[in-house]
Amino acid sequence: MNALTNIHLPYIERNATRHNKMRYYFRFAGRRICRLPDDIDSEEFSTAYWQARRSVAPAEEDATPNWTISSPVRPASFRWLCHRYMDTTAFTTLDPTTQLKRRQIMEAMWAEPVSVTNARVFADMPVAMVTIENIEVLRDRKRETPFAANERLKILRQVFETKADGKAIVANVAKLVQPFKVHTTGHHTITPAEIEAYIKHHGTKSKAVLALTLLMYTGFRVSDLAQIGPQHRRRDELHLRLFKGRGRGPTEIVMPIHPTLDFVLASHPVAGMSYMVTEHGRPFSIKGLGNRISDWFSQAGLPHCTAHSVRKGLATNQAENEATDRMLDAMFGWRDGKTSQIYTARADRAKLARQAVQKIKWDGVGDQLLGGSQEDEATG
């Protein structure tokens, strides 16, 4: 009853005595203003509460301004620290699309209220007063999408790591908050049967199959598929600077054109600078192409497949056909060897398991099982 009656009353501090009796105080700006009556549902309590509330009305009005994204940045506030972070090399050397995404995530957090009982937004909160609980609130508001929640936490850790003159501006409370544990096997790995179903649905001459063929024989991400075109071709090779990481450490790849890909490209004349163009002859945006590929998979009854499913399928297929780590690194633009080893190690395990099964002998006992089966069939 109490929680329902007073759920919208902020600034109430509840304190239980050792005799389990609840005491109430009016608390504002970090200090107790007065003690309130013990019966929270009484008229006496309501009168005392609003009398205390009116006594801090001017300060309260200043504390909850009509905030907008264009409001002046308050010094030493959470928003101020975010701006300091965006001036650091750690932020400015990120890819422009990554910078934009991070800024949008920060702006979303600036506009959120501190709590259900405190309408003040995080933007103007003094950064020195941000607590572990505040960080958990920002994380938990994305609980339904744990990847987004963890991305928020990742950005907050970097924001609070910002330094001035080589020293931390404030303690990094975000590092004390744990990310959500997400159990996932990642993107689905496409199978030859699914590829066959896709081609059968769309037809070999379709734009949908052109996209699939490019993915099947290059392993490109959507960001690279959107930019690849005739200008990247040098005889029987594709020369491309990969989109991912192009701002900090660009990766150049040279990829021989597979005969099947060459045949399919020849059947799709291109007048512009991109192999993948819209119905109006314009290059796809990265997001637009990603959405279109998802639509094509859904239309073929494969909504669980994505462009990345094909990339994983290609790496798996090559590893099973004894491609080495260095071969995969060269083709996919991987640098540390860790990603390629995932695929080659998996293929090696399958190969070794197959060889291990052939080593099962049991000193000839198994032959008796085979013989027993034959006798059973004869007497049955």
Describe, in plain words, how this protein is organized in 3D.
With 380 residues, the protein is mainly α. It has 3 domains: 2-63, no CATH class; 78-176; 192-355, hpI Integrase, Chain A. 48% of the residues lie in helices and 11% in strands. The chain contains 17 helices and 10 strands. A 3-stranded antiparallel sheet has the order 1-2-3, with helices on one face. Strands 8-9-10 form a 3-stranded antiparallel sheet. A two-stranded antiparallel sheet has the order 4-5. Helix 9 runs antiparallel to helix 10, helix 10 (207-218) runs antiparallel to helix 12 (259-266) and helix 14 (307-320) packs across helix 16. The longest helix is centred in the last third of the chain and has 20 residues, at 338-357. It is elongated. The N and C termini lie far apart (76 Å). The relative contact order is 0.06. Mean pLDDT is 86; it is low at 1-8.
Unreliable residue runs? 1-8
Known CATH architecture of the largest domain: Orthogonal Bundle
Name the overall outline: elongated
Question: How would a crystallographer describe the biggest sheet?
Answer: 3 strands, antiparallel
* DSSP summary, beta strand count: 10
Structural class: mainly alpha
Beta-strand portion reads 5-15%
State the order of secondary-structure elements, H for helix, E for strand: HEEEHHHHHEEHHEEHHHEEEHHHHHH
Distance from N terminus to C terminus (CA atoms, Å) equals 76 Å
Instruction: Provide the CATH topology of the largest domain.
Output: hpI Integrase, Chain A
The radius of gyration is 31 Å
- Main sheet: strand order: 1-2-3
Count of alpha and pi helical runs: 17
What is the CATH class of the largest domain? Mainly Alpha
- The averaged pLDDT comes out at 86
